[in-house]
Amino acid sequence: MSERSTAVQPRRFLLTGATGYVGGRLLKSLEASRCHVRCLARRPEFLRARVGPGTEVVQGDVLDTHSLVAAMSGIQTAYYLVHSMGSGGSFEEQDRIAASNFGQAARQAGVTRIIYLGGLGEAEKSLSEHLRSRQEVGEILRQSGVPVIEFRASVIIGSGSVSFEMVRALVDRLPVMICPRWVRTPTQPIAIEDVIQYLVQAADLPLERGSEIFEIGGADVVSYRDLMQAYGNERGLKRWLISVPVLTPWLSSLWLGLVTPVYARVGRKLIEGLRNPTVVRDNRALRVFNIKPRGVQEAVARALANEEHEFAETRWSDATSSAGARKSWGGARLGSRIVDLQTAETKLSPAEVFAPIRRIGGKNGWYFANSLWRIRGFVDLLVGGVGLRRGRRDPEHPAVGDALDFWRVEAYEPDRRLRLLAEMKVPGRAWLEFEVEPADSGSVVRQTAVFQPAGLSGLAYWYLLYPVHAWIFRGMLRQIVKRAELGKAREDKHGPL
Hints:
globular; seven-stranded antiparallel beta sheet; single chain; disordered N terminus; 497 residues; alpha/beta
């Protein structure tokens, strides 16, 4: 028998939710173990730039059975890490349909196991809609006949997770908090690194008993009040929490929408679940898996230590399901930073649309509201900043480290990315990033303004000027695309300049 025929074939995994918080972290772990990974995405063009060279990205949707059957061809293990909580309408019904479609397609394709991450909570204790739906999805997947390994977790601690960002924003912004009753509900938070280990090890778990349900949590059982205090301790912040027996889930969600990054509709669904204790009752996972979960304080410390690593590896706001967060007034939150994201599509190639981006600033100006840019530069000079007088070294090609007006080039990838760090006087730190990615019909341009406020003065600066900033950023992106298209038209008419 030939060497090729006796070689062990690599395992093949299907990963859903790779653009999401947990899925994005899991993708990196699977790629590091040299597994063959196929990612299912509704918009593959948005994911391809993030995956490794050996990872497939295929178009598909859990609500489209035909796309699932094709995506699962040749797959042994399928990860189900999607949910519809960020969507409008009945997210429970959408989750039922999606889980049923996924299970049926897995059975038809001969998938040998499904690995699913759901939520903790005692079913007999009148669970919230969100927690009830998470457990119902696991049951629907099991009804397909394919063995399912379901993990049930509570709060996931990691820079970028919805629950952690909610706690962070509350503690960062409010020295004194009027807290509703749910802050005393017991929970068992788990570090994102431990969740990923469970998901990875589940792929090798023997299936002698068929489907399995494992409750997973960290080393500590705490209240949400304790969790906020643990975060405050790690940040060196003294906070006063005053409990009151009121503030309904609806009112709480509106309150969170004003002071945290949680989109009000998602926030309401999360808060309704906070009334339910989410504590591990069956610790069999500790015996079955070779994992020693971290405690709360260590998990919070690691989350903050990882914050500066590319603004954390993945973000809940990256997920398509939570895109509504970007509609919040003043921009979405990204960790301790505030983000304004603008996107545009064009039929031009990435190189063509990137041309005006690499030429931005200096004598070319900023393409929109240049008079306001000049005023901003003059004000910066008055307060001791660098102003716009530096211009740029090269009118065509920037380089990392170059001064560019009152910015500094922090990252540059030709025809793909330009990130600028602000050196003007602002109450915090600011970045402006442009990214261009290929799309089926041309290119997608993303323009991201990121601001890390320094205290309340930084927050006031951002929110007071946000209407002006948003107007300028939208206009600038439109003009970048317009200039690129005019340049392409001139080139087609007269030849390359």
